[in-house]
Design brief:
Helix content is 29%, strand content 22%. By secondary structure, it is of the alpha/beta class. The protein has a single domain (2-206), classed as Alpha-Beta Barrel (TIM Barrel), CATH 3.20.20. The strands form 2 sheets. Strands 1-2-3-4-5-6-7-8 form an 8-stranded parallel β-barrel. Strand 1, helix 1 (11-19) and strand 2 form a beta-alpha-beta unit. It is globular, with a radius of gyration of 16 Å. The protein starts with a strand and ends with a helix.
Length: 207
């Protein structure tokens, strides 16, 4: 089972993640969505991303990105763009123009939203199922994606908490994506991050 820790906005936390003995495979940064308290302004982002990612992949989280932000970040050390609210045409265009791997984010309220993945399947490297919450931590019924048939890796987000029985997500998805569940008073909490990464390690050791 792989992990993604999202909403990193300071260098201290990022250093802790990349230097951890069991680092997350993916680390996400909110690039163009100022409504989120985890949004990182461009100049600060540029500085933070100078930190060596070591064995992790850096992910730019983008909501309906326009050409100006895409041009701005094209030389930063991102491995993936995680795209919300983009059409298939826009996704294909971004993937081709910037030669970047794409995580297509599908926000879910009910079963009708789940089937949308089929439209994007051929152009996504990873398909993420998230809640409709965006800047708020909301959840959806994760069991809705349990029996999907796809050749792509599935990532699961949406109000995942470290108290959850994380091993249950292994039957549903390949990658678990957590953000608010690792915070205390709105800030990333190193002790919670460590608990989460240790849980992932334990699950992988047991299976």
């Amino acid at each position: 089972m792989k992990s993604k820790i999202c909403g990193i906005s300071d260098s201290e936390t990022l250093k802790y993640l990349v230097e951890h003995p069991n680092p997350p495979q993916y680390i996400g940064f909110i690039v163009n969505y100022p409504k989120s308290k985890r949004f990182v302004e461009y100049n600060r982002l540029k500085e933070i991303l100078k930190i060596d990612k070591k064995n992790s992949k850096y992910v730019a989280v983008l909501v309906q990105p326009d050409d100006s932000i895409l041009e701005k970040i094209k030389d930063l050390s991102f491995d993936y763009y995680q795209l919300y609210d983009c059409t298939l045409v826009e996704i294909k265009s971004i993937k081709e123009k910037y030669n970047i791997k794409i995580i297509v984010a599908i926000t879910v309220k009910d079963q009708n939203d789940i089937v949308k993945y089929m439209e994007y399947n051929d152009h996504a490297d990873i398909i993420l199922f998230d809640s409709k919450g965006y800047e708020k931590s909301m959840s959806f019924d994760h069991q809705l994606i349990k029996n999907l048939k796809t050749n792509k890796e599935l990532m699961l987000a949406g109000n995942i908490q470290i108290e959850d029985n994380i091993v249950n997500y292994k039957e549903i998805a390949d990658i678990v994506d957590i953000s608010g569940g690792l915070e205390t008073s709105g800030l990333k909490d190193i002790s919670k991050i460590n608990i989460f990464l240790e849980k992932i390690k334990q699950i992988n050791n047991e299976t």
